[in-house]
Amino acid sequence: MSKPQVFVTRIIPDEGLEMVRTAADVDVWQGELPPPYDVLVEKIASVDGLLCLLTDTIDRGLIHAAGESLKVISQMAVGYDNIDIPAATERGIPIGNTPGVLTDATADFAWALLMAAARRVVEADKFTRDGHWKTWGPTLLLGPDIAGATLGIVGLGRIGQAVVKRAQGFQMRIVYHDIQRRPDLEEKMGVEFASLDSLLQESDFVSIHTVLSDETHHLFGDKQFELMKPSGILINTARGPIVDPIALYSALHNGKIAYAALDVTESEPIHADDPLLELENIIITPHIASASKQARTKMATMAAENLIAGLKGEDLPNCVNPEVYSLSA
Ligand code: DGY
Questions:
Q1: Distance CA 284, CA 260 (A)
Q2: Which residues line ligand 1 (CB under 6 A)?
């Protein structure tokens, strides 16, 4: 019997790719950059399965272009704001994602950014390389204390909770905001619920861990930066469009907040002439929070498991639109 046909939109870690190869005939896009949209349209018309990344636009038009044979779309990421889920559900196509396996890697990286921003690690490295280190300086490159400070977590899901666990070792006061209050976690984790406005007013560090949706698009704008402390530091490892970049530039430039550390930006990659890149009080990394070897390997194997289950007509182990199963029953 011939194997199902699969298109994989980038070279993914071997462990995942090998699993897919044993189950299907695989066409892997070899480019360093994502396949153009017209290539996706052409491929999705004929394959049984698509393994994609957050850099692929899987919109309604693309889903409509899918052939009758398409049984599954498996994304190698936990976030899926690049995929039109209602359109996929209408077509009866299950969508897989990779929750859980990148939680620790992402929380570690949020902490790396928090500490690097507070203690000005990137600036200090540049200072040294540029030959400015003349002596030990009593006021050289000072930053705020982390221990004992107040940390505001926006979004107390898996990753937000993992960031809280790390903060406990720093004796921080931790406040959180989430659309869903979590009384079950408040005592257990030592976190206090706050409105977003109060969280912004009280926190020394604000770390974003919410999904991108219509409600959270530009959740951080001029008003929110006005509320933050002038010494406040913003960390974003979630999705770029949650922060309005024009408002952020103005807040950093005008001293409304002290520092920002972003792993995600509104457009990715950030444009070379983006004004944010002119600022000294910002760190910007290229969406690498989940980039530990272990996390990326597990993301690839989990994406492969979802894909293979979908090809066999089985329920995906991690499906973001399980309602497809009741619709087709
Ligand atoms: C995800 O899985 O959504 C992450 O952003 C990948 O780093």
A1: 8
A2: 54, 77-79, 102, 287, 289-290
> What pTM did the predictor assign?
0.97
**Cβ burial 309-328 (10 Å sphere, 16+ → b, else e):** bbbeeeebebbbbeebeeee
Residue spans of the chain under pLDDT 70: 328-329
Catalytic residue among 120, 177, 287, 296: 287
Report the atom number in ligand 1 closest to the C-alpha of 290.
7
Q: Same structural domain for residues 34 and 155?
A: no
pLDDT in tens, 191-244: 999 999 999 999 999 999 999 999 999 999 999 999 999 999 999 999 999 999
Q: How far apart are CA 44 and CA 149, in angstroms?
A: 50
Give 26's strand partners.
6
What residue numbers bound the domain in which 59 lies?
Answer: 5-100+293-328
How many Å lie between the centroid of ligand 1 and the Cα of residue 179? 21
Segment holding 92, helix H or strand E: none
Whether residues 115 and 175 share a domain: the answer is: yes
Does residue 110 share a domain with residue 92? no
Q: Are residues 89 and 43 in the same domain?
A: yes
> What does each C-alpha distance from 106 to 132, 223, 295, 317 come to in angstroms?
33, 28, 9, 22
Same domain, 222 and 129: yes
- Is 268 noted as a catalytic residue in this protein? yes
Number of domains in the chain: 2
Same domain assignment for residues 93 and 153 = no
Which of 290, 297, 318 for a ligand 1 pocket mutation test, highest count of atoms within 8 Å of Cβ?
A: 290
Is the same domain home to 253 and 306? no
Query: Nearest to residue 310, comparing CAs of 298, 299, 320?
Result: 320
Measured in Å, residue 299 CA sits from the centre of ligand 1 at 9
Q: Identify the CATH number of the domain in which residue 175 sits.
A: 3.40.50.720
What angle, 0 to 180 degrees and rounded to 10, lies between the N-to-C axes of helices 121-129 and 103-118?
60
Atom 7 in ligand 1: residue holding the nearest Cα: 290
Quick one: which atom of ligand 1 is closest to the CA of 288? 7
Are 160 and 50 part of one and the same domain?
no
